[in-house]
Amino acid sequence: MTVQPGWYVDPAAPETRRYWDGEGWIGAPIPVDATPPEGPPPAEPAPAPPAAPPVPAPVPPGPAPHPGHPGAAQPGPGRWPGPGYAPGPGHPQGPPPGWPYPTWPGRPPEPRPHGLPLASYGVRLVARLIDFGAVFLLNAVVNGWFVWRYVEEISPYLRESVRRSLSGNTSTEGLPQPGEQAAGLQIAILLIATALWFAYEVPSMAAQGQTFGKRVMRVRAVPIEADQPLGFGRATRRWSTLGLPTLLWYCCGFGLLLQFVDAVSPLFDHPLRQALHDKRAQTVVVQVPRATPDTRTAPHDRANHPGDTP
Q1: Predicted structure pTM score
Q2: Between 182-208 and 231-243, two packed helices, what is the crossing angle to 10 degrees?
Q3: Could you point out which of 160, 164, 203, 215 has its C-alpha 20 to 30 Å from the C-alpha of 109?
């Protein structure tokens, strides 16, 4: 591939235009919207020769460093490789016009927000299941009576529907209807469940970035911009994306579908593995390292003191 000499947009700085002489970029860049001059830019004055470095003291001969050793000679800055491209001496580094700019070779390294590794999806899932178990126990205590009353209201309808289904009768005529209080009880159950989830998660996340499940699994939610507490407002925004759809469970499970999409979204987000509620609150979930005891302040075991004899 041969590129004719002329003024082209620099791939490394698309807001500038430079002159390509057929082998490399020469001259100073100009703004991309400026009218380039005819022909190549004027030659730049040659830099003054550097002062001669001081002569180092003689060093005794030793074994030559192996390749890759800090003392070994390293190759100079490489030029853009490609068929038909032979860079001339003194030409600046960079691809010719129309060539793709180099990207990261292979897979880029995993990001470490604030120096901490990202929590894996499996660890986050286990932490969320622990929290769901804790919220379920709270609902069993607070919401138990409402659930029992709701089951009593709809049980005649369910029993008759199951009996007809087992006998092969698909008719819906004469089915007993749920009680008058069934709809109100369903709304009350969902409101109480949502409020309990909010009270369980938001205050602890606002203060520490951790719920009980996250503390057990040693993960923590932190803001992207700084390693600091989330605060009540950010913790509420983060929870509401996942928690408020609970109120839509009665709409043919539409709320549950929204929560499922949110729950699996970290699997498809790169490189920060953010769920939808993380993106709304601009947070990431990191793995908290295990605390190592300070040997200077930890109490010594007098039974096995180094100076004692057994």
Answers
A1: 0.58
A2: 140
A3: 215
CA distance 308 to 310: 6
DSSP 252: T
Convert the pLDDT of each residue in 196-215 to its tens digit.
999 999 999 999 999 999 99
Tokens for 166, please give them: 């087992």
Phi and psi dihedrals of 28, rounded to 5? -80, 150
18-43, pLDDT tens digit by residue?
888 777 888 888 887 878 888 788 77
Q: Which residue has the tokens 């590794």?
A: 117
pLDDT of 241: 92
Which amino acid does the sequence have at 118?
A: L
Taking phi over 0 as left and psi of -120 to 50 as alpha, with beta for the rest, 156 belongs to alpha
CB burial string 52-81: b at 16+ within 10 A, e below: eeeeeeeeeeeeeeeeeeeeeeeeeeebee
User: 């659930």: which residue's tokens?
Assistant: 147
Dump strand ranges (E) for the chain. Answer: 6-10, 13-20, 25-31, 219-223, 283-287
What is the DSSP annotation of 6-59? EEEEETTEEEEEEEE-SSSEEEEEEETTSPPPSSSPPPPPPPPPPPPPPPPPP-
> What distance in Å separates the CA atoms of residue 107 and residue 271, rounded to the nearest whole number?
11
* The pLDDT of residue 220 is above 90: yes
**How would you classify residue 155: left for phi > 0, otherwise alpha for psi between -120 and 50, otherwise beta?**
alpha
